[in-house]
Amino acid sequence: MMKNKLRTTVIMIMLMMITLLSLTVYADNLDEMRTNKTLESLLLPFTQISSIHFNYTEIRSSFFFKKKQISQGNIQYIKPDTIIKRIVKPHYKKIEIHKNKLVIHSMEKGALKVDINDYPQLKHFIHLIKSILNGNAHYISKYYEVSLDLNSKSFLILNLIPKKLPNNNEVKRIKSIHITINYDQINSIKILGFGGETSTLMINDILEKTL
Amino acid sequence: MFRKKNNIIITAYFIVAGLLLIYLINSLHLRSDMSFFSPNTLSETDTLIQEYLLESDANRLLFLQLGESHPNNKNDIKKLAELSIQLRKNIQMNPHFNLVENGQKSVNTTLNSQLYRYRYLLSPNVSEQLTVSSLKKQFHYLLERLQLIASPDAQKIMAESPLNIWFSHLKSLHNTQLSLKEDVWFNQNNQAVLLIKTKATGFSIDQQKKNVHFIEAQIKQLPLTNNHYTLSGAAMITLANSKQIAFQIQVISTVASVILALFLWTLFRSIKLLFLLALPLIFAILVGMSVVNFFYGYIHGISLAFGITIIGIAVDYPIHYFSHLINTNKTEDFSDHKNVMLTIWPKLRLGLVTTLIGFSAITFSSFSGLNQLGIFAMSGLISAALITRYLLPMFIYKNHLIALLWFKKFIAYFILFKNYFIYRVLIFILILIAIVYISTHEKLWENDLASLSPVSNELKQQDFKLRKSLNLPELRYLLLVSAETEQGVLQQTEAITPFLEQFIHSGAISFYDAVTRYLPSINTQMERQKQLLDSDQLYHNMRLALLESPFDIEAFRPFIDAVADNKQLKPLRPDDLEASLFRTKIKSMLNQKKGQWTGLIFLSGVEASTLTAEFYHLFNNSQTIQLIDIKQQTHHLVANYRSESVRWFLWGSVFIVLFLFFYIKKITALPALIFPFSGAIIFTLSLLLLFGYSISIFHLVTLLLVVGLGIDYSIFIYKSDHLIEDAQIMTLFSVLVCMLSSFIMFFSLSLSSIPVLKAIGLTASMGASFAFILSLIFSRPSYSVHLLCKH
Predict the structure, then answer these.
(1) B-chain residues near A120 (CB < 8 A)
(2) Quick check: B223 contacting A, CB < 8 Å?
(3) Which of B46, B141, B355, B572 has CA 20 to 30 A from B325's CA?
(4) To the nearest 10°, the Cα dihedral for B229, B233, B235, B239?
(5) Is A126 within 8 Å of A145 (Cβ atoms)?
């Protein structure tokens, strides 16, 4: 009699544990699905853009520098795989990225061609930017913890923290990325490094946009 | 009563066999290296080469390529890189692997190592990079690198080593032709490449088998498309060798044993007999192994293989005995068994003693391999003969020999030869022609053991290509630098470094690995120390270099301190190195023997003709620098071994002739005993050459078996004319059964596609046949045909 009671109790506890476990898993998935969905709807306006050209100002701070480094120039994005960055100040430099090929044009060295695969950090960053502009929520949520801050009615900040995955080297150097978005326009991208470094890229004005 | 006593004795014999087996299981130490072919007193160079072949890193490396191997394949680089990283982690957990490299940088080990502290003494051309213009250039490069946010570890390294001197030096040490994609190595065919170093040497077949199984099991767990991968390296070649040989030996010996068993069963109609026939051979192998292991403390794998081959004659002893039991099979009286044994024992004993005299010659050789072979064969044959003499007559055995009548006609046909003098003259002329043919043959000897290897050239080529692409040493060429001191070797090596660079430029080699790349001599380190700027000078240069740059000079204080530290450090010597893989590597490249120091410089991607020409042009008269072609050196060892074998072979033949002469005391009787084995050797050798084979050490050792068989056949046939008619038939019958048994076993082996097995099989089967035919032809004429034909 006692034995049967004990057995029933154990089975009940186990059933409860299984139910709780499945609920947790479901909740996790639900969370991820919800994030993906929110991210997708957030990135949706960007997917309408086939090309965009804008001016920017970039501010870099690092303990290696005497003071904050400011550079200016313009960036052109042509869907799906072309990004051209022209640094005008302090020294002219043009960086062209097409698929996996990167060409750096500078006054001193001329053109230098490299394979992005050989520069994983750069590759990762380019993938992130492309994913935002292409509305690839899956890639972003695969490698980053995603959260949103609503600062005002028109601005929101997309906060990305690299996930601790075996193949995600970003986790060692990037503390967080904060992207300020105003509907279909990115206003700024701020990157904080674990070593105290920061990089803030601010978009000043749109020169050209094609839908 | 007799039966009870016999059972006790039989049990005692088996207990002895069991004890020997236990001894072997506990104490057997098998060695499988080139020392089998080495003289007991080896030159220093040969010793070094042997140590290198046995212990060097070169034979511990395995190369793994993940993904499809076609040049235009569509391997998913990212996925393969992830798999490579995962696999590296999994394999590293196994303590049987020393190192697993896939191109990933290991920042922590670089930072913590003793070598990192000494980086400005160990790296070349440091002072040139501390000038204002050079500093300016290098800090500009650093600014480019800082476009991307760096990790804290990377920032620490940038502050301590902003000039990238140490990392470019490390990169040059591990310079490869592979490209880094997604942080890991990829070859031109977009396959991920991993380099795995095992703790065990490439020749430790059992451990390497386990290592390979482990790696393959780890790969199977990965989601690798179509499971495409290739694994190569010295161990894979060894395993492929042993796998192929083991498989063919297993198949051939099983088939041959079944045929032999059927053959013997057809003649004797007894399963028990098959077991009894194997007894002397089993005892011979057990005793041979035990004696060699007891005296030497180890046994060469090759001694064992050759030994088992040449004591194959041990099977003949019981065949003679059981064939002669035909006349006594009516009762189970053991006295009959003993009488038969007493009848044939003088012949067995004479054959045994003559064979032992022949084999004893090789025990005087100065080659440990030959010594072991002689001792193995002699102790094995003695025990086989004693087992036949004393143990076999104790077994109850009823002879059911029913094929004898059929055989009588067969034998009579063979005997026809012996009455014709013309046949003997003909044979004699043929022997002379064969001797002339052998002695004038262009490629009589085969010293290249590799040509006898069953491993495909494809596998060897794959190994060569991968070593070249990873700039890893080949197992063939190396340079030896000698001096009286360790520092002397380092200085000499530094002195020839410009020439080594020249070899690279001319394409003679693609890479070299010298100890001074890792650890320069004390002189060089002190010279570098002198040239390093002091803190004030360096600060001054940096201030000027960073004048127009955004960098804050104070951020690079750790760099200035590190240079100052290196300026006052005591230079690093090999003995100062902390225990690490690095120290092991340095130590393995430097050797001391009898007050002489030697340094090894490993070469890869060697273009043999260019290298040889350039090396001898530059270093022809050098006493301290030697170019070693391990293959040539091995050929040299094997050639010496062969010359020694032939010399003692001939001495053995002389001893046999002398012994037989003093034993028979009739010079006219000698041809009947000597021509069969010597003629068989000469005919076998000439036929092998005629078939296009060159004579290797394997042919030569198998000829020792032919000597044994020839002596056995000729003694039995020669002596048979003293016997009564039935016994004469029985003797011939037993010799024929012996010959056919040997023929079945060895001819089967000659059908193998493995050159070594083919060599042994062809030599023994041809030799046994010739020995039998010549024994018949050269037996005494009084042995008449009509006597046999009456039956």
Answers:
(1) 182-183
(2) no
(3) B355
(4) 50
(5) no
pTM beyond 0.90: the answer is no
Check whether B238 has a pLDDT greater than 80.
Answer: no
Distances B277 to A135, B282, B283, B320, B769 between C-alpha atoms, Å: 83, 9, 11, 10, 21
Rounded Cα gap, residues B718 and B771, in angstroms: 13
Q: Are A81 and A99 in contact (CB under 8 A)?
A: yes
Record the tokens describing residue B538, joined without a space: 């360096």
* Residues B307 and B375 sit within 8 Å (Cβ to Cβ): no
- pLDDT at residue B603, as a whole number: 86
Please name the amino acid found at residue B213.
H
Most confident of B97-106, B556-565, B710-719: B556-565
Burial per residue of B417-450, b for 16 or more beta-carbon CB atoms within 10 angstroms, e otherwise: bbeeeebbeebeeebeebeeebeeeeeebbbebe
Nearest to A118 among B82, B158, B180 (CB): B180
What are the distances in angstroms from CA A99 to CA A78, A81, A84, A116, B72? 11, 5, 12, 9, 19
Q: In the structure encoding, which two tokens stand for residue B117, read together?
A: 């502290």
Question: What does the pLDDT look like over B175-221, one tens digit per residue?
Answer: 666 777 777 888 877 888 888 888 887 767 778 888 999 998 898 88
User: Does residue B303 have a pLDDT over 50?
Assistant: yes
Task: Mean pLDDT check: name the lowest of B185-199, B476-490, B580-594, B645-659.
Answer: B580-594
Q: Which amino acid is at B285?
A: I
Candidates B53, B25, B24; CA nearest to B37 is B53
> Can you tell me the distance from the alpha carbon of B348 to that of B346, in angstroms, rounded to the nearest whole number?
6
Rounded to whole angstroms, what are the CA distances from B710 to B238, B271, B612, B680, B704?
36, 28, 47, 7, 10
User: What is the set of domains in chain B, with CATH numbers?
Assistant: 1-31+269-401 (1.20.1640.10), 111-174+534-571 (no CATH)
Rounded to a whole number, what is the distance in Å from the CA of B65 to chain A's nearest CA?
Answer: 19
Helices B234-268 & B205-220, crossing angle to 10 degrees?
110
Question: What distance, in Å, lies between the first and last C-alpha atoms of chain B?
Answer: 40
Longest Cα–Cα distance of chain B, Å, equals 120
- DSSP annotation string for B487-539: HHHHHHHHHHHHHHHHHHHHTS-SEEE-HHHHS--HHHHHHHHHHSPPHHHHH
Does the beta-carbon distance from A65 to B181 stay under 8 Å? no
- B178 in Cβ contact with B102 (< 8 Å): no
Give the Cβ contact number of residue B681 at 10 Å. 25
Output the six-digit token pair for A38.
């929110």
Question: What ipTM was estimated for this complex?
Answer: 0.75
Asked if B552's CB is within 8 angstroms of A193's CB, the reply is: no
User: B229-241 as b/e, with b when 16 or more CB fall inside 10 Å?
Assistant: bebbbbbbbbbbb
SS3 for B642-662, per residue?
Answer: HHHHHHHHHHHHHHHHHHHHH
**The token pair that represents B683 in the structure block:** 């005919």
Distance separating alpha carbons of residues A150 and A17, to the nearest angstrom: 37
What are the tokens at B641?
């071994």
Min mean pLDDT across B323-327, B409-413, B525-529 is at B409-413
Predicted confidence (pLDDT) at residue B526 exceeds the cutoff of 90: yes
Position B632: which residue type? Q
**Chain A contact for B547, CB < 8 A?**
no
Q: Percent of chain B beyond pLDDT 70?
A: 83
* Overall residue count recorded for chain A in this entry: 211
A195 touches chain B (CB under 8 A): yes
Contact residues on chain B for A167, CB-CB shorter than 8 A:
81-82, 85
A8 lies within 8 A of chain B by CB: no
Contact A120 B182 (CB under 8 A): yes
What is the rounded distance in angstroms from the CA atom of residue B200 to the CA atom of residue B61?
10
